[in-house]
Structure formats: C-alpha cells, structure tokens
Design brief:
Structural class: mainly alpha
Distance between the termini: 36 Å
Oligomer: single chain
Mean pLDDT: 80
Shape: globular
Radius of gyration: 21 Å
C-alpha cells in the first residue's frame, strides 16, 4: 500500500470516526438530558425528533456535499465539514449544560432549541461521510471496495465504543466533559487533515460544472432510484436504515423508561454495538467476502437484524427474578445481532451499488446512497418516537420486523438473479 493511499484512508477513517464520536458521545444520554425538560409521556417523541433532526439535515446536505467534492475536490469539503462538526457539538453542549439548570418555561424551550440547532448543524456537517467514502473509493480498486468500505463500519463501531462508554462515564464527573472531548477530537481531526491529507481526486476526473440538480437532494437520489441497475438495491438500502436508526434511537428511552436502566448500562450496550461492528467489519468482513461474496452476506445481515428486533421486543421489566435474569442479556444479545447484521450488510451493499455505477461520479453516487441512509435515519427515529409514545413501547421493534421482510424481498431477488447470470456458462 502506497503512503499516499495509506494517509488518504487514515484521514477518511478519522473523519468518519470524528462524525461518529460527535454523534454517539451524547446520543445514549439524550433521554437523561431531555427528561427534565418535557413531560414523561413525550420523552420518546422528543428523543426521536432530536435523532431525526440530525439525519434530516444530513439528508438535505449530503448530495450537495458529494457533488461539491466531485467538482472542487475532496480536501476543501472535508475541511469545512470538520469545522462544522466542532461548532455543532459545541452548540448542542451549550443547550445541554444550560438544561441542567434551566428546566422550566422559556428556559427549557431555549435549551431544547439550542440542542435542536446543534443537532441540525451537525447533520449538515455530517454530509462529509459521503466525501470520506468517496475518498476510500478513489484510492481502492473495485474488487477490494467491500473490504475497504468496511472502514466505515469500523469507524462507526469504534465511535460507539469511545462515545457512549466515555460519555456516560464523563457525564458522572461533569455534564460538559463529554461535549468538550467531542469538540477536542474534531479539532484534532481538522489539524491532521490540514497537515497530511493530499487530494485524491485529480483535476481530470472532476465534474466540470455543477447543475442546479446538484443542490437538490431529491434530484440525485431520484436519479439513483431510477437507475435500473441499482434502483431496488437503493430502495432496500434506505428502508434498512429506517429500521436501523429507529431501533437504535428508541432503544435508549425503551431501556431507560421501560427496563429502568442507568446511563452506564446504556453506555455498555452501545459499547457492545461498537465492539460487534469492529469485530465484523474490521476482522471478519474481508475473509467472509472472499469466501461467500457480498451477494450472500447481504441476506445474512438482514436475518441477523430481524432476529435482534424480535429479541428486544421480548424484553420485559424486572417484575420477576426471571425478567431480571433475561432482560439485560436479551437486549445486549440483540444489540450484538444488530452489529453483526449491519456489519455484513451495509459495506457489502455499498460495494455492490458502487460497482454498478460509473467511476467518474462516485462522489455523487455515494452522496445519493448516503442521502438514502440519511432519509431513513430522519424518518425512522421520528416514527419510532411516535409509536413508542402513543402506541406501545415495543411497537417500533415489531414494525421493524415487517419492514425488514420487505427489504429482503427488494434486495435478495436482484442479487439471486445476478448470481445466476454470472455463474451460468456463456
């Protein structure tokens, strides 16, 4: 591996990790931050909306950022988005810290407004995830992209280990410490990018102009959905992320309000999610991709995610000794299932989509795929919050099972047909 490629992959990885740490450092603590500011019956809804606001603005920004990186290059876009991440986490932290002292009336409204503003700005800056993925694609041959894109999952996994674990521990010391650490990591990421990262998209490969469609998040996404080579795969990709983000977001109020977990318990569960992601995408994905192929890993990932949702729906409060013995292990086991399912499906499906698209527009393509992820991530938490608050706390996980069955129908059919075509004699 050349030094230029190694540095590019390292900077892309750190950028993805920075985004995840800024997201996950306070994410498991949202229920504890929101609970003093709103009525108990609305906590799940507000947490879902906070989670959805990040993703909604990421959805609006990601295709634009991806197209800008195709036109101007990766380096300036990464730099601006990293700065935005640092500012957004600081703004959210200001609202959270004020919320610890001003918990009624206009004070509570101001705190929530700052938290929503910080999450929204972070969503805009989080559009850099598509650019970081485009950097990985820029420097990786097509045959090795599934394994290389596993860095995305490793960054997510490591972010979920560092963020929730340290966040819950530092919160016990002082509420501002998790925020300060997330901002410090963003600044470190900025310095490393400015000093070491070299442009990976040569001028000859850049898009010569930007049409108005580049600034319309729906335009690029509709083009991708309308592409017969990747349309059904992309729809399934978006629906899968509706399930993933609805379950991960609503898991926090579920275990906190229904199962009486503490912040450290939540942090441990998300640390398991992170460790599972790293184990699968950092250690197992490469050998499994060579052994089974990306086309076989995708349905396995769907099945694992479905099994995890069923397991969470079976968890009950500690009303009896059996409930106490089964509740936490059941949820933690389900979280590991989610990590394994996501670790197998997401990089494999991203690689399959990228292999079917033109090499000269990978930033736009990855931006469109990331936009589908962000759209799913914005719809999922808000919908899960409504189901949790006004139907039943287990409804989000049961509905997720039905959606995953639909995802399987959308994705598995085209992959089976492709495998039959590639294996049939000429």
């Amino acid at each position: 591996m050349s030094r230029t490629r190694s540095v590019a992959l390292l900077c892309a990885f750190l950028t993805l990790l920075n985004d995840r740490i800024g997201e996950s450092m306070v994410f498991p603590l949202l229920t504890f931050l929101v609970a003093p500011l709103v009525d108990t019956r609305h906590v799940g809804l507000v947490v879902g909306l906070l989670g959805g606001s990040y993703a909604a603005f990421q959805f609006l920004a990601t295709p634009v950022i991806g197209s800008l990186s195709d036109h101007f290059g990766r380096r300036p876009v990464l730099t601006l988005c990293i700065i935005g991440t640092a500012l957004s986490v600081g703004l959210f932290g200001l609202g959270a810290v004020l919320g610890a002292s001003l918990t009624t009336g206009s004070g509570a409204f101001l705190d929530l407004a700052l938290m929503f503003a910080g999450r929204s700005l972070h969503g805009v800056a989080g559009g850099t995830a598509a650019t970081a993925q485009a950097v990985i694609v820029d420097v990786t041959p097509p045959a090795k992209r599934a394994q290389a894109l596993g860095l995305v999952g490793v960054a997510i996994g490591l972010g979920f280990i560092i963020g929730p674990g340290w966040g819950s521990w530092l919160m016990d010391v002082h509420l501002a410490l998790p925020i300060a650490m997330a901002v410090a990591f963003a600044l470190l990421n900025l310095l490393l990018t400015l000093w070491f990262f070299s442009e990976t998209l040569p001028g000859s490969a850049r898009q010569p102009s930007l049409g108005l469609g580049a600034f319309n998040p729906f335009w690029n996404m509709i083009q991708t959905l309308g592409n017969p080579r990747v349309g059904r795969l992309s729809v399934g990709f978006g629906l899968f992320f509706i399930v993933l983000y609805s379950c991960v977001t609503i898991l926090v109020p579920f275990v906190t309000l229904e199962l009486s977990w503490q912040a450290t318990d939540v942090g441990q569960a998300f640390a398991l999610l992170g460790m599972g992601s790293i184990a699968v995408q950092g250690l197992l994905l490469g050998p499994l991709s060579r052994w089974l192929g990306a086309q076989r890993l995708v349905p396995i990932g769907i099945g694992l995610m479905l099994l995890g949702c069923l397991m969470v729906s079976l968890a009950r409060p500690d009303a009896t000794a059996l409930d106490a013995a089964m509740g936490k292990p059941l949820v933690n086991s389900a979280v590991v299932m989610w990590a394994m399912g996501v670790g197998l499906l997401v990089p494999s499906l991203r690689a399959l989509i990228s292999q079917r698209l033109a090499a000269g527009s990978q930033g736009k393509a990855m931006g469109s795929v990331q936009a589908l992820q962000s759209l799913g991530a914005s719809v999922g938490p808000a919908t899960a919050g409504i189901l949790f608050s006004y139907l039943t706390p287990r409804a989000p996980f049961l509905i997720a099972v039905l959606i995953l069955l639909l995802v399987g129908g959308l994705i598995i059919g085209p992959l089976v047909r492709q495998r039959q075509l590639t294996s049939s004699p000429p």
